[in-house]
């Protein structure tokens, strides 16, 4: 497994330029579309349908992603392979990309801390936290395929993290809560956003409440949720063209953190536009986000 | 100030399908026929999404009036970048006799309820070719209208619209709120790819009935008969220009 990933890693470095040919070559292999969420089958399917590539905002991270060079990107119909029915993990969502960029550029936010990446998808935020020196990272995703992918992606990035399929939103808060909760693009669905806000509220009632960091491009459910506390915007990134194509209607992605947290001292820029929000310019989320957004977006 | 845009999208028989009239002449065959979004509405949706990407619009809402399947049309709009959808449920006989006046009333009501600043519609639907909805919606709301738009620009608080008219192009300026209808050359709609289709499945669609909106959809017309256009007669081939002239004289064309 490790050698397979390593080989692919090298492969994809030069493959990116002529990826069409590679995909064609890969799709000539056969694979079985049924079977357990473990072992060779899923790896082979992932190998066949995705490319190990860098999310546009994250040149230091590689993930198994469906890119414009992959067959599925262009398919209108649902994938017949059950692993690829709604493959949320096969895309690095703009919220997750912004949050990961922010973590990598502001490592002290996670350094030495216990981290939960809730709704990990590809595992991108958790991987960024590991790279930034988190003490322990636990990724949560209710999709068993996503959990398997997180393992593959962690290995590809040579980091160690715990992955679980348990639905943490339905559990009572841990006695031993994390220091930081990462939410990469978890407000894409109205019902889930509602559940998430309720869960966050419980977390924050803990005597030692965690810090919450949210990455979101301005999704409707995020802007219209009644959040349990105020957030402020700590980073704004311009989405690179490929990321924009994947997210029709969005041009930026934002990172939000709890109002009380300390502002990061330094923010590095890497081909991205980052607006360091001052206290004056930052927006309060909650009921007033809608009015507040246009003033600085 | 960022604006809220309402776009209309009608589910119609796909433009590439050969239309067949029902044997009883009450309408055209729709069962099992491929449907898609009215192409002019696709252009309107594209323009609204571009307004959002240019930060002219803060939110784009799509509306479709029709049976359950209209939600598929809304999903296409959502995949193109619209934020949320409203499905106005009209089906069966009611839908067959739904007229632009009804749709205009529905759109006007929704625009008011949702506090929209711009209504963007296709200039006409390719199934009934009515070309009335935008005009009537503007009239019901008493908003200015700019129809057959081939270019829309925002200039402080107003919209400058290039219109396609018979003699060429006309530039008009309208105050906001306004109703705009899209012509063919306004833009080229984007193709919805998997990542966008996937995300669109999770975007909210609210279902309402015309009754919820306080709009009556009682039919105002009665369809007497739907017929195929007369078949074109086969032509003839002529040997040379002289015979052509002779033939044209014979049939009284010259
Ligand atoms: C929009 S994706 C975000 C993935 C990743 N954080 C990123 O930004 O690229 C959301 C993920 O959350 C997962 N999810 C949905 N509900 C969940 C829940 N209750 N607990 C944990 N994960 C959940 C989905 O399976 C999906 O993989």
From TrEMBL, chain A:
<keyword id="KW-0489">Methyltransferase</keyword>
<comment type="similarity">
    <text>Belongs to the methyltransferase superfamily. ETFBKMT family.</text>
</comment>
<dbReference type="GO" id="GO:0032259">
    <property type="term" value="P:methylation"/>
</dbReference>
<protein>
    <recommendedName>
        <fullName>ETFB lysine methyltransferase</fullName>
    </recommendedName>
</protein>
<dbReference type="InterPro" id="IPR029063">
    <property type="entry name" value="SAM-dependent_MTases_sf"/>
</dbReference>
<dbReference type="GO" id="GO:0005759">
    <property type="term" value="C:mitochondrial matrix"/>
</dbReference>
<keyword id="KW-0808">Transferase</keyword>
<dbReference type="Pfam" id="PF06325">
    <property type="entry name" value="PrmA"/>
</dbReference>
<dbReference type="GO" id="GO:0016279">
    <property type="term" value="F:protein-lysine N-methyltransferase activity"/>
</dbReference>
<dbReference type="InterPro" id="IPR050078">
    <property type="entry name" value="Ribosomal_L11_MeTrfase_PrmA"/>
</dbReference>
TrEMBL record, chain B:
<dbReference type="InterPro" id="IPR033948">
    <property type="entry name" value="ETF_beta_N"/>
</dbReference>
<comment type="function">
    <text>The electron transfer flavoprotein serves as a specific electron acceptor for several dehydrogenases, including five acyl-CoA dehydrogenases, glutaryl-CoA and sarcosine dehydrogenase. It transfers the electrons to the main mitochondrial respiratory chain via ETF-ubiquinone oxidoreductase (ETF dehydrogenase).</text>
</comment>
<comment type="subunit">
    <text>Heterodimer composed of ETFA and ETFB. Identified in a complex that contains ETFA, ETFB and ETFRF1. Interacts with ACADM.</text>
</comment>
<dbReference type="InterPro" id="IPR000049">
    <property type="entry name" value="ET-Flavoprotein_bsu_CS"/>
</dbReference>
<dbReference type="GO" id="GO:0009063">
    <property type="term" value="P:amino acid catabolic process"/>
</dbReference>
<dbReference type="InterPro" id="IPR014729">
    <property type="entry name" value="Rossmann-like_a/b/a_fold"/>
</dbReference>
<protein>
    <recommendedName>
        <fullName>Electron transfer flavoprotein subunit beta</fullName>
    </recommendedName>
</protein>
<dbReference type="GO" id="GO:0005759">
    <property type="term" value="C:mitochondrial matrix"/>
</dbReference>
<dbReference type="GO" id="GO:0009055">
    <property type="term" value="F:electron transfer activity"/>
</dbReference>
<comment type="function">
    <text>Heterodimeric electron transfer flavoprotein that accepts electrons from several mitochondrial dehydrogenases, including acyl-CoA dehydrogenases, glutaryl-CoA and sarcosine dehydrogenase. It transfers the electrons to the main mitochondrial respiratory chain via ETF-ubiquinone oxidoreductase. Required for normal mitochondrial fatty acid oxidation and normal amino acid metabolism. ETFB binds an AMP molecule that probably has a purely structural role.</text>
</comment>
<keyword id="KW-0249">Electron transport</keyword>
<dbReference type="InterPro" id="IPR012255">
    <property type="entry name" value="ETF_b"/>
</dbReference>
<dbReference type="Pfam" id="PF01012">
    <property type="entry name" value="ETF"/>
</dbReference>
<comment type="similarity">
    <text>Belongs to the ETF beta-subunit/FixA family.</text>
</comment>
<dbReference type="GO" id="GO:0033539">
    <property type="term" value="P:fatty acid beta-oxidation using acyl-CoA dehydrogenase"/>
</dbReference>
<dbReference type="InterPro" id="IPR014730">
    <property type="entry name" value="ETF_a/b_N"/>
</dbReference>
<keyword id="KW-0813">Transport</keyword>
<feature type="domain" description="Electron transfer flavoprotein alpha/beta-subunit N-terminal">
    <location>
        <begin position="25"/>
        <end position="217"/>
    </location>
</feature>
<keyword id="KW-0496">Mitochondrion</keyword>
<comment type="subunit">
    <text>Heterodimer of an alpha and a beta subunit.</text>
</comment>
